[in-house]
Design a protein that fits this description.
This protein is mainly α and about 80 residues long. The chain has four helices and no strands. The longest helix has 15 residues. The chain is globular and about 35 Å long. It starts with a helix and ends with a helix.
Length: about 80
């Protein structure tokens, strides 16, 4: 699993719309997502990953992030590069 590939996906999405966006702005959230993927490895589902993405960003950016339908597309991209 490549941190930088996931970082590229998350930064392109930029869910909090940070401008200007620093490369490492979402590093902590990416690490949480990677941990989840590693824990779930063989049982990982697209919907579980989507829910985790929403959960991580909701907790970290409380009040600034609302659950996004885009999270499903992001989960698909992440699964494509990780599995």
């Amino acid at each position: 699993m490549n941190f930088y590939k996931i970082q590229e996906i998350i930064n392109e999405w930029n869910p909090i719309e940070i401008e200007p966006l620093l490369d490492d702005e979402y590093s902590l959230e990416i690490r949480y997502i990677m941990e989840f993927i590693n824990e779930q490895r063989s049982d990982l589902t697209l919907l579980a990953l989507r829910d985790k993405i929403n959960e991580v960003f909701s907790k970290t950016f409380e009040g600034f992030y609302t659950q996004s339908e885009q999270a499903l597309a992001i989960a698909k991209k992440i699964m494509h590069v990780c599995l």
